[in-house]
Amino acid sequence: MKKILVMGVGNILLCDEGVGVWAAQELMKEELPEGVDVIDGGTFTQDIFHMLEGYDKLLVLDVVHAGKNPGDCFFLDEEDIIQKEDQRLSLHDIDLIDSLNMAEALGKRPKMRILGMQPLDISTWQMELSEPCKAVFTKFVDLARQEIKRLAAE
Q1: DSSP character for 97?
Q2: pTM over 0.85
Q3: Of 40, 66, 76, 116, which one's alpha carbon is 20 to 30 angstroms from that of 83?
Q4: Which residues, in sequence order, are CB contacts of 10 under 8 Å at separation 6+?
């Protein structure tokens, strides 16, 4: 059985920056396929590598600055991030590739996929999503559910 880690990352105090954490919290309330764990990764940086141990796949939920319209949802593969080293995933600039490399050095590296949402605002101190992101939040969580099912079936 494949082990899948779903990690919501971000800062819930900074408007859209918290979308990944909010989504992870929604998924934690649900019954997911066997072998799927969901965690709130918060604003962890390279110290997350120890959390990856024992997992085959990693689904990261986060804001991604991709020059799209606020609220646009999309997937990125690990290769997309490697090819665009200057791409910042979010305000806290989690260096997921370094964390994955550290996990690999310790024995096993999960394959990463990112579900991102283009933010409107990541600098306003508020514990609520902006209107464009709030309007598609349910879609974002649905996309995460679909991807979890797809990864579990592989």
Answers
A1: H
A2: yes
A3: 40
A4: 17, 18, 19, 20, 21, 42, 43, 62, 63, 90, 91, 92
Spell out the per-residue pLDDT of the chain, length 154, in tens: 889 999 998 899 999 999 999 999 999 999 999 999 999 988 765 667 778 888 999 999 999 888 899 999 999 987 777 666 555 554 444 467 677 777 777 778 899 999 999 999 999 999 999 999 999 999 999 999 999 999 999 8
| 3-state DSSP assignment of residue 8 | strand
Q: Which helix (H) or strand (E) holds 137?
A: helix 137-153
The one-letter amino acid code at 55 reads Y
Helix, strand, coil in percent for the chain, rounding step 5: 40, 20, 40
The amino acid sitting at 143 is L
Return the closest-CA partner of residue 60 out of 99, 2, 104: 99
DSSP structure string for 12-60 = TTBGGGGHHHHHHHHHHTS---TTEEEEEEET--GGGGGGGTT-SEEEE
Q: Report the SS3 class of residue 126.
A: strand
Map residue 88 onto helix, strand or coil: coil
